[in-house]
Amino acid sequence: MGEGITESILGGWFSQGEGRRERVVLATKVFGRMGEWPNQRRLSALHIRRACDESLRRLQTDHIDLYQAHWPDKDVAIEETMRAFNDLVKQGKVRIVGCSNFSGDELAEALQASKRHGLVEYTTLQPHWSLVERQKFELETYPTVKIYWLAEP
Description:
The protein is α/β, with parallel strands linked by helices. The protein has helices at about 5-15, 45-60, 80-90, 105-115, 135-150; strands spanning about 25-30, 65-70, 95-100, 120-125.
């Protein structure tokens, strides 16, 4: 299958009936290869902005409810990534941002960068966690979640 085919299918479904989009919490991810060039993958600001615009076009909608970083990107400064997400939220293209497959240290780094620069923060986490793969989340990532998200204000 080609890049973005699932989004195109959903966009077609949205367009087939009045009010379909409004009844859905729409989540999608950014990171993967969407073409052959270096700026068509990962979490550079340029790729995040372009990927969001392409997702909106394919999905035939004006906003994404939850936009997630699919994987951490050690080759891009976290501040650059979070600024790009912040810009998308300010523009109304994205409602909230989250991350997937981040370690506790990677999540903490992103949250600290967001606080330090006054940027939007990851508000959701989709961890790699199953009966087979439990330790990384339970021993490393969950304690970070408790510190940042579950602590009383």
